[in-house]
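Sample 1 of the test manifest.
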Amino acid sequence: MSTHAATAQPSYLVDTGTRKGLVAWLTTTDHKRIGLLYLYSMMTFFFVAVGIGFVMRLVQLTTFQKLITAQTYNALFTVHGVIMIFLFVVPGLPAIFGNFFLPILIGAKDVSFPRLNLASWYFFMAGAILAVLSLFTGGGAPDTGWTFYAPFSLKTGTNVSLAVFAAFILGFSSMLTGINFITTIHRLRAPGMQWFRMPLMCWALYSTAWIQLLATPILAITLALVILERFFGIGIFDPAKGGDPLLYQHLFWIYSHPAVYIMILPAMGAISEILPTFAKRPIFGYKAIAFSSMSIAGVGSLVWAHHMFTSGMSGTALMLFSLLTMIVAVPSAIKVFNWVSTLYKGSIDFQPPLLFALTFIFLFCIGGLTGVMQGALAINVHIHDTYFIVGHFHYVMFGGTGMALFAALLYWFPKMWGKMYSKKAIYLSWFPMFIGFNMLYFGMMILGMMGMPRRYYVHLPQFHTMHVITTVGSWFLILGLLMFFGALLYAIFKGEKAEDNPWGGVTLEWTIPSPPPLENFEEIPTITRGPYHFEQEGK
Amino acid sequence: MTGHVHRDDFGARLGMWLFLVTEMVLFGGLFIGYSYMRYRYPAEFHHGGSELNATLGIINTLVLLTSSLTVVLAIVAIQRSEKKRAMACLGATLILGLTFLVIKAFEWGAKFHHGLYPNSPHLATLPPGEQVFYGLYFTMTGLHGVHVIVGLAVLGVMLWWVATDRVRQDRYVHLENSGLYWHLVDVIWIFLLPLFYLAA
């Protein structure tokens, strides 16, 4: 680069190298551009999966069953799950906002391995393309559900091998991102940026990265075994050859339960950034939040078998896993109490990011508490594999991670694009989103309590009214989503220019121009205090 | 070119160690499967182990251990700026790695010859525990073999980089990291040897 001779660097959105336009973007090693590459690709997949969810709800209005067969329905819920989990929720916040903001938040120019970072995006896209290919090639779209349970996944004629291979590659991408973030946090903190001066988003990303590192390889080997089993019949999961399908379930959930924390921890990190800014107060209980992230990562790795309470395990194992499951609720609750305490006596500046952050807290509490309910053995047996699980899961993943992602997007939008969206349009989109969300997913929990099993193509007449209500809820929700992203897209192209610090935030990203310059900082800052010091501003 | 020239050898090594952690966990999943199955079928695993050729297994262990030594010698040579010696050591590593694969191929070939391979008609007549034993044997040694091949490819690139001075006395972290990877391949084999060959 020949730019550092000049007084000010150009914005990262301006092509400065010899490459221009799309080529410049596809060969970039700038963490900010890679973050946007992830954002654009993930949002595309997100809307595909939303569309599939929409169709799935229509199927439950029985009039549409002429159009969609039971087999297609099986494929729809599988693909909805695979796309949402592996292409959106798991990589979402770390890959988009972690990439964009982690180096800025710790005062670095980029991540430790910029080229590896770009490679991770290509792995991500390769996995995504294979996942999409698996729908249209071979024996048809996979119909196992996103969990690929053996022995059905070993026997079905549909295209499970390719879908599983896609998930394998996506896992690889996620792991490499994790390695990159851990190394970045260890090596590239600005002078004076001690561990306890890092913004909480960094702690969340750090714990997430460790789970990615320690859990994802287990998924990789499990999925590899499914492929080997399908091609060569090695027999490890096949009871006919002395194998054990329960071993599959254990291995799968040893990854996939910690993966839930991969999904929620960065969301909690983003919320911990947003609340102090709009309460104009330092976060309450900084260390408690930081350590609770690490303890969620730790304890969360020991609870996997609560997905298998009805699969057949010893009574001792059941009780242990039930107990551990309830213990995870403690660090999560610590966070919630600290967030609420941060707001207490703050001088609250009500803005769209805060609205979505509060929505996160509300929905996450419902999702979290219903999670504790299911951790109780006696209740679990009754609601296992019902719509209750589906409702709970969407409260945590969509109401939790999804809403936090929207909040983070609203919070950092002016920084990322240097434009401001219409706040009125965002508020307006919130109403259908919030009402639709609760109609849809609370309705599902009620259905589950009534006894509606998940993944069923048909339902008994007594469930019909609730199915209609949830389906109408899904329309409101999608309307809200369209309004929300419509407003943001409009703002990218036609929005007013944003100030460098529109919210009055005090972390490092608000000290640099919007959009950030190519190397983030003119000069690497020296840090002399903790991240949330509002005393100097205002009061 | 784009990007800033930023060099952090310690960071590069840290990243490599983290990657090795993921590799260990990857094999860890298989070791969990192995422990569980062995607990379930102790007699069959014992019998299966006695069918394997322990002599070849031990020879291969010696081959791999020696190859780890030659990688270390290559790094020492680079630190002393002895380019030719470094290339010779790397070449020796490549040859030893290939030897390992050849011996492995003979071993697998013999098993195939006896009709012992996944999904074979002969294997289907054996008790379930032995079927699982051979399933794990081929999976774990196979995955290890894949790692040997990857390691050889990486070391091959290193040989080329040493030859073209991209790896040299003041800049050898890539070679160090490749060496770390090769040691991991070695360490995993050290666990596979007793679990399969010496367990009889």
